[in-house]
C-alpha cells in the first residue's frame, strides 16, 4: 500500500512538473518545472530498484540539461522591466520537424532489434568504474568549468542600462541612498 502511495506521489509530481513546463509563461518557471519532472523520473527509476539510471538521470539530465538551459536564459535579451523577451517565430517549423520525427520513429519501430544485456561485464562493475574512485575529481572539474563559464559570460555580456557603478552597488549594500553619496568627493 505504501508503494502505491509513493508511486502516486511520484506520478503527481511528474504531472505537475510537465504541466508547468507546458503552461508556464515565464522561462524560469518552465526550467523549474523541467527540473521537477526530471527529478521525478529519477525517483521512478529508484522506485523500480534501478539506481544506476536514477543517478545517470540526475547527473546528465537534471544536472547538465538544466544548467545548459539556465545558461541560455542568462544570455537572452531582457526588456526594460527585466523580463525575458521571447518571440516564437518557429512554430510551423517545429511542428513539421516533430511530425517528421514521429513518422521516422513509426517507420523504424518495426526494424528495432531488442536490447540484450551486455555479456562479460556486469552492470555493477560498469557503475563502479563510472561512479567510483574518479567521481570527486569529475565533479570538481565540472564545478570549475561552471565557474569559468559564468565568469566568461559575465565578462562578455554588455552592461545593461540599469546596471550601476560600484559606488551605487556599495551604497545599496550599506542602505545609503546613492544620491546622497553622489556629491561626495572620492
What do you see in this structure?
The protein is 70% helix and 0% strand. The protein is mainly α and 186 residues long. The chain has a domain at 1-76: NADH-ubiquinone/plastoquinone oxidoreductase chain 6, subunit NuoJ (Four Helix Bundle (Hemerythrin (Met), subunit A)). Helix 1 runs antiparallel to helix 2 (27-47).
Describe what is shown at a glance.
The protein has 186 residues and is an all-alpha fold.
Content of β-strand = under 5%
CATH class term of the domain at 1-76: Mainly Alpha
Order of helices and strands: HHHHHHHH
- First-to-last CA distance: 70 Å
Which oligomeric form is depicted? single chain
CATH topology of the domain at 1-76: Four Helix Bundle (Hemerythrin (Met), subunit A)
Largest sheet, if any?
A: none
What is the CATH superfamily of the domain at 1-76? NADH-ubiquinone/plastoquinone oxidoreductase chain 6, subunit NuoJ
Q: Using the CA coordinates, give the radius of gyration.
A: 24 Å
Q: Name the average pLDDT.
A: 75
How many distinct beta strands? 0
**pLDDT below 50 for ≥5 consecutive residues: which ranges?**
none
**Helix- and strand-based class?**
mainly alpha
3D shape: extended
Helix fraction bin: over 70%
What's the CATH architecture name of the domain at 1-76? Up-down Bundle
- Can you count the helices? 8
